Structure formats: C-alpha cells, structure tokens
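Re: [ENG-882] Designed sequences occasionally contain unexpected residues at chain ends

Forwarding the minimal case from QA. Structure tokens:
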C-alpha cells in the first residue's frame, strides 16, 4: 500500500485533539481518516495522495488536523462526511453534497 495509515494498531487508542473539540462524525478509508466536530469543522489525517484531505500538494499527516474549504458557501458548514478509497463526500447544513 502506498499510503500511510493514520492508526496502524490492533488495540484502541485515543486520538489527540485540542481541548474542547468533540467529534460528531468519523469516516475512514484505507489511507485517510476524516472527522467532523461539534462546530462543523473538518479534521483529517493520513495520506493525501488523492487530495482528499486538502487541495495542497500530496502529503501525509500522521495526526488529525483541522482542514478548511474555500468552496463552502457563506453560512454553510459540514454536518456529515463519507470516505471511499480515493474520494471524500461532505454533507452541508443546507443539504448540499460536496
């Protein structure tokens, strides 16, 4: 496998997040993980080989980091997330799928 696995473990372990951040949705592929917090922020980590974590160059992030999206309409925020082997889908509060 070409990608880096965010958590390559056989036992459960906590994922470090800043104080006050609570995840409400989590989606995983075989190469990356995405999560949505209580405020509609998206967190991602793992391989960015398909640019599923950001539009920037292909990089690997071993921990969940906050992501921003310039394509969200004003007033929109993410409420749910889905992940596939090479794609990610986001559902916004106004019902749009991105």
């Amino acid at each position: 496998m070409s990608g880096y696995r965010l958590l390559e473990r056989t036992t459960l372990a906590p994922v470090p997040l800043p104080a006050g951040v609570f995840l409400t949705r989590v989606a995983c592929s075989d190469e990356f993980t995405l999560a949505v917090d209580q405020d509609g922020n998206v967190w991602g980590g793992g391989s960015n080989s398909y640019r599923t974590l950001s539009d920037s160059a292909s990089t690997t992030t071993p921990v969940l980091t906050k992501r921003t999206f310039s394509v969200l309409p004003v007033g929109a925020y993410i409420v749910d997330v889905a992940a596939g082997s090479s794609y990610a889908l986001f559902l916004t509060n106004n019902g749009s799928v991105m």
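QA comment: On inspection the terminal residues look reasonable. DSSP finds no helices and six strands in the chain. Proposing we downgrade this to a documentation issue.
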